Amino acid sequence: MPDDRLWPVSIKGVVFVEKKVVLLLNDRAEWELPGGRLEKGETPEACLIRELNEELDCAVAVDKLLLAEVLEVVPGKRVLILAYRCLLPSPIAEFKLSEEHKEVRLFSASELSQIPIPEVYVSAVTRAKDANLLTETVSR
Question: Residue 72 CB: number of other CB atoms within 10 A?
Fold first, then answer.
């Protein structure tokens, strides 16, 4: 199979803290969802649990798949993004940032249009937010 048909897979998590989403600032000065590369023999859920523990020092419960889309991270380099909604089993006062990123911050959905962030991540946040509203409505 030609190399141009083999893309890395990155598993990302949409984590809300009081209606704000957790984002990380990467080396390209873009905000991104926490997560990372799927390793051989690993399920997407296991990858996400491992990555969020590594990047933010937090435990998460992986909920449902929000999207699967290809992102061109830099010209000519594509990555398959699988984004899942994640739930925090207990409240977190502060995330511990790993060396992989420059900053961690919480953003409201309305702030996403004002920051450098790939559209695929905005779509994932919007879908998670909509699913969250649906869940809140159904559970009342």
Answer: 11
Cα(103)–Cα(96) distance, rounded to whole angstroms? 10
- Domain residues for 28? 3-139
- The secondary element (H helix, E strand) that includes residue 23 is strand 20-25
Q: Is the pTM above the cut of 0.90?
A: no
pLDDT digits (tens, 9 = 90+) for 71-85: 888 788 889 999 999
What is the number of domains present in the chain?
1
**CB-based contacts of 101: which residues, under 8 Å, 6+ apart?**
24, 25, 26, 55
Query: Quick one: tokens of 63?
Result: 């909920």
- Residue 44: CATH number of its domain: 3.90.79.10
